[in-house]
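Both lines are quoted verbatim for reference:

——
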Amino acid sequence: MINVKILGSGCANCKTTFQLIDEITRSKGVEVELEKVEDMGEIMSYGVMSTPGVMVGDKLVHSGGIPTRSAIESWF
């Protein structure tokens, strides 16, 4: 199981990013544990200055704006 963190304040872009990752990983049959991180101190500790940010495992793979479907698919 892959741990995926969506880093953001809960804005529309963060919610859309969460939904896209959930949809794409389900369609590919990839087991992930999706987690929303809304604490700004924790978000900044990952080096994210622009949200939404996405962590896959321990790696920051995206920051700022909604990632494309192709980008999300490439992470999994």
